[in-house]
């Protein structure tokens, strides 16, 4: 069973979602099923079938969350340091073609969010950056084509 690396924030986010799904969503769906049952014939009861579908999706997500939390390897970012890029690093880099500056934090798959500048450890950019230092050039083969970046800063925030 593979460990799932994540930050303490990522672990807390998954744990909060699990608590919400088990203590809020599950009872709400059970109540909806009970109410739909009271309407009579279940074979033609669209409300009942919709509630059962919601229940199935919710229980599937609960199982997925429990699995990820059970396999979680929480990495304490406060204990990380160094000059090379690794999990938890915040990397500032410059696109060598456009001179555009980008800043990403490398996090676990479950907490990746490009809008918040958090990229997955398994993404093409992160895989290319791992082990690099300030001044190194990296070639990233991404779905949008090949890009070259220069690492400007590596920090652990």
TrEMBL record:
Residues 4-74 form the Transcription elongation factor GreA/GreB N-terminal domain. Signal peptide: none annotated. Keywords: DNA-binding, Elongation factor, Protein biosynthesis, Transcription, Transcription regulation. GO terms for biological process: DNA-templated transcription elongation; regulation of DNA-templated transcription elongation. InterPro entries: GreA/GreB_C_sf (IPR036953), TF_GreA/GreB_CS (IPR018151), Tscrpt_elong_fac_GreA (IPR006359), Tscrpt_elong_fac_GreA/B (IPR028624), Tscrpt_elong_fac_GreA/B_C (IPR001437), Tscrpt_elong_fac_GreA/B_fam (IPR023459), Tscrpt_elong_fac_GreA/B_N (IPR022691), Tscrpt_elong_fac_GreA/B_N_sf (IPR036805). GO terms for molecular function: DNA binding; RNA polymerase binding; translation elongation factor activity. HAMAP family: GreA_GreB (MF_00105). Necessary for efficient RNA polymerase transcription elongation past template-encoded arresting sites. The arresting sites in DNA have the property of trapping a certain fraction of elongating RNA polymerases that pass through, resulting in locked ternary complexes. Cleavage of the nascent transcript by cleavage factors such as GreA or GreB allows the resumption of elongation from the new 3'terminus. GreA releases sequences of 2 to 3 nucleotides. Belongs to the GreA/GreB family. This is Transcription elongation factor GreA. The lineage of its organism: Bacteria, Pseudomonadati, Pseudomonadota, Alphaproteobacteria, Hyphomicrobiales.
């Amino acid at each position: 069973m593979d460990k799932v690396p994540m930050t303490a924030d990522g672990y807390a986010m998954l744990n909060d979602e699990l608590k919400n799904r088990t203590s809020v969503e599950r009872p709400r769906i059970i109540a909806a099923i009970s109410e739909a049952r009271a309407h009579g014939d279940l074979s033609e009861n669209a409300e009942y079938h919709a509630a059962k579908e919601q229940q199935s999706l919710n229980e599937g997500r609960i199982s997925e969350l429990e699995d990820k939390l059970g396999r979680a390897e929480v990495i304490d970012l406060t204990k990380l340091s160094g000059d090379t890029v690794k999990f938890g690093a915040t990397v500032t880099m410059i696109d060598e073609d456009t001179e555009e500056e980008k800043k990403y934090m490398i996090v676990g798959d479950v907490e990746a969010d490009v809008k918040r500048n958090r990229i997955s450890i398994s993404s093409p950019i992160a895989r290319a950056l791992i082990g690099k230092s300030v001044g190194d050039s990296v070639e990233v083969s991404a779905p949008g084509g090949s890009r070259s970046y220069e690492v400007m800063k590596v920090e652990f925030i």
